[in-house]
Amino acid sequence: MSGHRRAYQLGVVACHACTLVCEDTGGSGAHARCPRCGAALHRRRPDSIARAWALLLAAVICYIPANVLPVMHTSMLGSASDSTIMSGVIQFWHHGAYGIALVIFIASIFVPCTKFLVLSLLLATSQRRSGWARRERARLYRLVELIGYWSMLDVLVVAMVAALVKFQALSDVEPRVGILFFGMVVILTMLSAMHFDPRLIWDGDKE
Questions:
Q1: Which InterPro entries does this entry report, sorted A to Z (predicted)?
Q2: pLDDT above 70 coverage of the chain, percent
Q3: Contacts from 121-126 at CB under 8 Å and sequence distance 24+?
């Protein structure tokens, strides 16, 4: 990193809340306050990796019942059935609702698994202070932040399907406990990404 000076070398620290660059008057910045918003200033978020790992592991644990337990109960013409995420995708696909099936698959299977893998990679490499592919890892973090805003698509689709079926007198759809666990997965992965300090990517041994 020759030719580039880091924030601690310049004696400044960025506020995590409002991003104002402030003078680092407290050494580590642990006791300083942002003059604009009053938030505590830190060169790096305290216990960032430990908190992000804990939230990520909790999300992975919740993802198991989210896929095993039913997310939707369908009753039509006297016959009732419970559907998990994958069985729901298969049913929608077989009934020709390819768009809904694809949205549920991407939002419920592809996106969460991708976030698990990416966050694990970011946390493991940052914990080891690896200098490998820093720019690419920074892009991956921005990607996780971007797709996090669309992670509730599956919950929204189930709600929309339930509302549409309610219009039919002989049909009924009700959400089941699996959708609650999936909502927890979404929230926990978003919190994990929020607690991870991406500046740790650039704190490798090779400066």
A1: PqiA-like, PqiA-PqiB_transport
A2: 71
A3: 122/196, 122/198, 122/201, 123/49, 123/52, 123/53, 123/56, 123/196, 125/201, 126/49, 126/196, 126/200, 126/201, 126/203
Phi, psi of 14 (to 5 degrees): -95, 140
Domain borders along the chain are 1-43, 47-202
The fold of 47-202 is: Butyryl-CoA Dehydrogenase, subunit A; domain 3 (1.20.140)
- Separation of alpha carbons 60 and 17, rounded Å: 28
pLDDT one-digit tens code per residue, 15-31: 766 777 777 665 444 46
Q: How far apart are the first and last CA of the chain?
A: 5
Rounded Cα distance, 188 and 184, in Å = 6
Q: Helix, strand, or coil here: 50?
A: helix
